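step=encode ok
step=design start
structure_in=
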């Protein structure tokens, strides 16, 4: 019964149905194009940043990543822990 009422309502107002369908499709297409542009722009920003600055390779001093804690990044870590 619910489906028959919905179908009857859709067929009774063809202009409104067409307008709603057309605007929904138009908004969907615009959204897809927007996402594609923003994704492409984001990729280009990353590419430009990497080419201009350090690049993809990171060279660290020997033993830099041997320590698994972040205490070596803070000067006087023991003093701060004592507070």
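sequence_out=
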């Amino acid at each position: 019964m619910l489906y028959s009422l919905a179908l009857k309502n859709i067929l009774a107002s063809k202009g409104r149905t067409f307008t709603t369908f057309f605007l929904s499709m138009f908004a969907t297409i615009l959204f897809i194009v927007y996402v594609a542009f923003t994704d492409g722009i984001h990729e280009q920003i990353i590419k430009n940043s990497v080419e201009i600055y350090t690049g993809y390779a990171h060279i660290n001093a020997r033993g830099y990543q041997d320590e698994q804690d972040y205490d070596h990044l803070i000067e006087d870590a023991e003093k701060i822990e004592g507070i």
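step=design ok
step=annotate ok -> The radius of gyration is 29 Å.
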